[in-house]
Amino acid sequence: MEAGWVRQFKAERGAKAEHKATAPDTSVSWPRRYVWSAGLALLGGLILRLWMLEAFPQANGDAIIYGTIAKNLLLHGQFALTDGSGVVHPTLIRLPGYPFFLAMCFRLFGLDNYNAVAGLQTGMELGACVLLADFVRRVATPRAGVNTLWLSALCPFTAVYTSAPLTESLTFDMICVAIWALERCLSARGEAGGRFAWGWLLLFAGAISYAAIVRPDGALLAVALWPTLIFSRPGGVGLAAALRPALFCALLSILPFVAWTVRNWQAFHVFEPLAPRYANDPGEDPHRGWQRWVKTWCLDFTCTTEIYWNVPDGVAAFDDLPVTAPNPAFDSPQQEEETLALFDEYNRDYEITPAMDARFEALAKERATAHPLRTWMLLPLGRLADMTLRPRVENLNIDLRWWEYWSHYSETRFSVAYGVLNLLLLQLGVAGFFYRPRLWPYMATYLALRCLLLLTIEAPETRYTLEFFPVIFALGGIKLERVVADTFRRGWRSAKP
Fold it and tell me: What's the distance, CA 56 to chain centroid?
């Protein structure tokens, strides 16, 4: 007579075999005819990124902040900035994910070796494109996966950021890794009759955690994708059985933030698990009145570059303010006079005093009360549209006022073409949702959450919507495959006698 554990083992093995027989096959390998196409896509992506590194070096602005923190980590063992007099000050205005990445690069390749950083980011991003393509292969077809690889490897909007010592490239990578690892985790769990594949789960946890420790808004990736571990469980798996590994994943994901929060409490005696909204250290005035006033008129990226980024510490030109609909900076002669007076006072020493900030606050309240629809709905939607649809020429040698055709004919034409390309990619991605591939509700949730967050931004920047593109590439690859298939099908039917 068989022992009880033997009967249980045979029953589990039989259930697993039955499930594998009925589960969808997601392990189809890459057909050989697609390997050459994938190789050409990667070669083209490498050439594009190397050319952009040579043509558009970008070690400036925020890159200098990240680089300074990284060097202070290596030279002084402190997460700190260096002021104009050379004194090192602890800081919390940036999360530690990217400065630690830069510190690792500087340790391996030498201080300030941003070319090595760009090279490493290039290799990592092309690898992420491969993972994204493999995700699409598993949820759709190999042809759709190759399409995704071509879209992601040759997209100039994401490629240009590999040459920038900024968080965008690593964030792109983590989104791709998270989506790929999540699908592998779910598929392996289905093949194992409900048991988790802990290796894939750990990789998924690491990706969503690092995405959040690189950028505060990276936490949206976890918010959107983590519920999949519970709600996409196989039939017969109870809530408790799915909840245990999901909670373990959540615990692993928040551990870095526990350490970061403890560090901030010890250094500044403040509770800060992420990074301040206005990138200010404790004791620094974020000028909330100024921020709220900007929110009542700032609509496009030129407002951000010409005014918002210059304040404080730089010249704010009154003549650069918009004066016509849909986003005038003042609605009456009295507001114009008060605004001019504030700008004149500010430009004397490039500082916003508490009294000035209070006057900006009063202007913001007056304008918001008089035009609530414009302030709380139309302008936020307009800023989101500007970040999403604007030609992405911010890192190129292109005038940001690209629409002024009389000033630069060729730049205007190029910018329009860039904008059309951006629009085509977005249309492909949105159309791909209609085919409802696996995980599409969670990818849609991620995009929706990110849009809601961007509606709160005072000053738009097109780079804030780069995180859309992993999803756009994946769904766009699926849509392209269907378009090509439908085209050939119609051609075949019309060719029949």
Answer: 21
Which positions ≥6 away from 184 have C-beta within 8 Å? 138, 197, 200, 203
For residue 200, give both structure tokens. 């894939």
Assess whether 296 and 265 both reside in one domain: no
d(CA 425, CA 389): 11
Range of the domain at 458: 43-270+420-488
CA 61 to chain centre: 18
Count the Cβ atoms, other than its own, within 10 Å of residue 196: 22
Dihedral sign from CA coordinates of 46, 49, 53, 55: positive
Q: Provide the residue type at 188 as one letter.
A: A
Lowest mean pLDDT among 31-45, 96-110, 111-125, 433-447: 31-45
Same domain, 323 and 454: no
Same-domain check for residues 235 and 299: no
pTM for the full predicted model: 0.90
Ramachandran angles phi, psi of 438, nearest 5° = -60, 140
Q: Tell me the percentage of the chain whose pLDDT exceeds 90.
A: 74
For the chain, how big is the Rg over CA atoms in Å?
26
Q: Residue 356: CB partners within 8 Å, gap ≥ 6?
A: 289, 290, 342, 345, 346
How many residues make up the chain in this entry? 497
Q: Which residues pair with 82 in a beta bridge?
A: 88
Can you tell me the distance from the alpha carbon of 39 to that of 49, in angstroms, rounded to the nearest whole number? Answer: 15
Q: How far apart are the first and last CA of the chain?
A: 70
What pLDDT was estimated at residue 12? 42
If asked whether residues 435 and 384 sit together in one domain, one would say no
Task: Please name the helix (run of DSSP H) or strand (run of DSSP E) that holds residue 280, with its range, or none.
Answer: none
Peptide bond into 273 cis (omega under 30): no
Question: What's the number of domains the chain is made of?
Answer: 2
Question: In this structure, are 332 and 450 located in the same domain?
Answer: no
**β strands within 264-414, DSSP E:** none
Phi-psi region of 317 (alpha: psi -120 to 50; beta: other; left: phi over 0): beta
Q: Which residues of 159-185 are buried (b: 16+ CB within 10 A; e: fewer)?
A: bbbbbbbbbbbbbbbbbbbbbbbbbbb
For position 205, what pLDDT does the model report?
Answer: 95
Cβ contact 345:275 at 8 Å: no
How far apart are the C-alpha atoms of 484 and 464, rounded to whole Å?
32
Token match 């003042």: residue?
330
Residue 154, SS3 per DSSP: coil
Instruction: Give φ, ψ of 81 to 5 degrees.
Output: -105, 160
Tell whether the model's pLDDT for residue 23 goes beyond 50.
no
**Rounded to an integer, what is the distance from CA 212 to the centroid of its chain?**
10
d(C-alpha 128, C-alpha 134), whole Å: 10
Q: Tell me which amino acid residue 277 is.
A: R
